[in-house]
Amino acid sequence: MIKKILLILTFIVSLFGYSQTGDCSMLKEGTFKVTDPASKKTSIIKRSGNIQTEQMEDAEEIYDFDLVWINDCTYTITPTAATAARNKDLQKAGTMMVKITRVKEHSYIQRVTVASNPKFRRMDEVFIVKDNK
Questions:
Q1: Beta partners for residue 79, in sequence order
Q2: Which of 102, 83, 104, 109 is nearest to 94 (CA)?
Q3: Percentage of the chain surpassing pLDDT 90?
Q4: Residue 95: is it exposed, middle or buried by C-beta count within 10 angstroms (0-12/13-18/19+)?
């Protein structure tokens, strides 16, 4: 009987641990850093209002995206017309959905999906460089 109770409590605690994301409101504006697991290149992300910019470290090119928050922890980014014109891969990708699945003290975990490619799934840890507090 005690084993069943402990098992149930462990299950319930693990559900709460995995389902809670934390406070995403502090991530709506600021500067962040993420490293692409395939290329090992680091990108600096800046969010302000309804615009997100991304720039690879050691590169001059800056990409702009229209940013729309769907809820506190989910948003979409779509390349602006100027960005799509400069980068055909981004134009083909179109709108990307980002779901923040976990907020830590100095970073967060995000899951990225792409509307035009349902098989695309990517998980990243994004580090907070500067927030707008």
A1: 65
A2: 83
A3: 59
A4: middle
Give the whole-angstrom CA distance, residue 115 versus residue 14. 30
Which tokens in the block code for residue 112?
Answer: 């990225």
Report the pLDDT value the prediction gives residue 91, as an integer from 0 to 100: 74
Helices (H) and strands (E) in the chain, counts: 3, 8
The token duo for 64 is 């702009």
Neighbours of 31 (CB within 10 A): 16
117: three-class secondary structure by DSSP: strand
| Distance from C-alpha of 48 to C-alpha of 67, rounded to nearest angstrom | 9
Whether 79 contacts 91, CB under 8 Å = yes
Handedness of CA 26, 35, 20, 119 (dihedral sign): positive
> Diameter of the chain by CA atoms?
65
Q: Taking a C-beta distance cutoff of 8 angstroms, is the pair 21, 6 a contact?
A: no
* Regions in the chain scoring below 50 on pLDDT: 2-19
- Residue appearing with tokens 């840890």: 125
Rounded Cα distance between 48 and 132, Å, is 9
